[in-house]
Amino acid sequence: MSTIFVVGIGPGAYEKMTIEAADALRNCDVIIGYTVYVDLVKEHFAGKEFLTTPMRKEVERCRLAFETAAEGKQVAMICSGDAGVYGMAGLMYELSEEWPDIEIKVIPGVTAATGGAAVLGAPLIHDFALISLSDLLTPWEKIEKRLLLASEADFVICLYNPGSHKRADYLEKACDLMLRYKAPETVCGIVSQIGRDGETSRTMTLAELRNTKVDMFTTVFIGNSQTKEIRDHMVTPRGYRYE
Amino acid sequence: MSTIFVVGIGPGAYEKMTIEAADALRNCDVIIGYTVYVDLVKEHFAGKEFLTTPMRKEVERCRLAFETAAEGKQVAMICSGDAGVYGMAGLMYELSEEWPDIEIKVIPGVTAATGGAAVLGAPLIHDFALISLSDLLTPWEKIEKRLLLASEADFVICLYNPGSHKRADYLEKACDLMLRYKAPETVCGIVSQIGRDGETSRTMTLAELRNTKVDMFTTVFIGNSQTKEIRDHMVTPRGYRYE
């Protein structure tokens, strides 16, 4: 039985990949992924065969992985961040029923939530909820409900896909929903291009976040009621008592 | 200005550490951490000075890191998983106000949620909430509220610290709360000793999970209404349409 490795390469920089992920890419014949991610790893894995499909061609990309593995090649399918967080691991398992002789092994990586948190300080130290604002595959009503209930529960919230050209006002809409339960002065932070050239980050209040424009390479963090700003960093206390 | 690296070493196995984390440990003079985590990395970083404090001595451990850095030594403070997810990064920032000349840099790692998800299949492909059942530092009423609202919002839920000797019935209590909104046949999974010797995993229904005993080395996953079992794995669809 052959195995396809579904590999999370982390936020982008080679050093943010796990040793296990780098080993899997070194030991495979073919690396398959979205064009942008293949470009991120290419220089570190010379001599491999690279196959790419554009965005929105996820099903084709998965089928390509199975077909290539069925030819007897060792395949690694790469995803940015963690392959299991809004990544391709799920679809690979769903399609794998058509290829019962091929096994899937997921190799975890650093997702944008924890990669971005490390840049901002320590926003995710306590219970948090991860919500994607993309309504391409999820009805907006469901996203809205999750934003409201997660805010009512006082979770730290991390938003993936907070905006794009088409969805320019989604972050503003999300902030208005969160403001029903979270205070306007709630400490928030944004990180763009995590672990890549041009990485930037900023802390601000939820009221300020509402009027901030973000793109699809930005990850957004909204604190809980205890999150504070310490030395320009966003920090959520765990609750250890100290004098 | 000197810098302390707060390093997430991942679930435990050396290969699950990022390249950046391994570099930070190789380049430091002193590695500080909870005894169990220091034992996990010791053999890979021979020649370093190792300092440990037991569990519940987190504040002392952080002060030790600052005092050692103030002596001019390069310090790495290690945490299992990601240092920013129920880890020491928050407390390090909080205490850092007493040491304004020392900078903190967090190096992210694979947390148990994504490490465990990779073992089970792909349970976290869509929006999820991370909740710790430990009421040592959080009032149980707050945990209860978060379990209820996260279930009502149909999040996939990942539970950290689901049980211990003292809290033997906490998972059962948590399941009863989640069962108010989630169906008894909701697909769930548990993983123990992620990435370490003796790693085990199991998928089951929420009704079965309610009657399952777990320890503090177990991470628990409760699916959303769409999570399914595919080839013995726990898989949450993202929603890509395919025929």
UniProtKB/TrEMBL annotation, chains A, B:
Protein EC: 2.1.1.-, 2.1.1.131
Alphabetical list of InterPro entries matching this protein: 4pyrrol_Mease, 4pyrrol_Methylase_sf, 4pyrrole_Mease_sub1, 4pyrrole_Mease_sub2, Cbl_synth_CobJ/CibH_dom, Precorrin_MeTrfase
Gene3D superfamilies: Cobalt-precorrin-4 Transmethylase, Domain 1, Methyltransferase, Cobalt-precorrin-4 Transmethylase, Domain 2
Keyword annotations: Cobalamin biosynthesis, Methyltransferase, S-adenosyl-L-methionine, Transferase
GO MF terms held by the record: precorrin-3B C17-methyltransferase activity
Domain Tetrapyrrole methylase span(s) in chain numbering: 3-209
A GO BP entry: methylation
Pathway: Cofactor biosynthesis; adenosylcobalamin biosynthesis
NCBIfam families found in the cross-reference section: cobJ_cbiH
Protein's name according to its UniProt entry: Precorrin-3B C(17)-methyltransferase
